[in-house]
Amino acid sequence: MAKSALIKCPICGKENDFFSEPLGPFCCDRCKMVDLGKWLGEEYRVSEPLRPEHFAEFEPQDPDQPINRELPADEYTL
């Protein structure tokens, strides 16, 4: 079964399917290239190095619970 999750394109805001191939979250190749250009032009950057405490909220509370479990649709938002 194919997954489907409608989100807005991060560049132009047009609604599209997050899992669409080969564009992913982008609605078209142009938006994908604009995003790449922003990364290459250093408009986007990681603000600080990641430390272990940044990941604390994502660690499972129950040691028997798998880390990479799939969340039901009502447990996440895009």
Describe, in plain words, how this protein is organized in 3D.
The two termini are 20 Å apart. The chain has a domain at 28-57. It is 15% helix and 8% strand. With 78 residues, it is of the alpha+beta class. The relative contact order is 0.12. The longest helix is centred in the middle third of the chain and has 12 residues, at 29-40. The radius of gyration is 16 Å and the shape is flat. Strand 1 (6-8) and strand 2 form a beta hairpin. The chain has a two-stranded antiparallel sheet with strand order 1-2. The protein has one helix spanning 29-40; strands spanning 6-8, 15-17. The chain is built from 1 helix and 2 strands; from the N terminus they run ββα.
Keywords:
78 residues; alpha+beta; two-stranded antiparallel sheet; 1 helix; 8% strand; flat
Quick structural overview:
This protein is of the alpha+beta class and 78 residues long. The chain has one helix at residues 29-40; strands at residues 6-8, 15-17. Helix content is 15%, strand content 8%.
Could you say which structural class the secondary elements and strand pairing correspond to?
alpha+beta
Overall helicity: 10-25%
Strand content: 5-15%
Strand order of the largest sheet: 1-2
Question: Total helix count?
Answer: 1
Furnish the topology, listing elements before pairings.
Layout: E1 6-8, E2 15-17, H1 29-40
Antiparallel strand pairs: 1-2
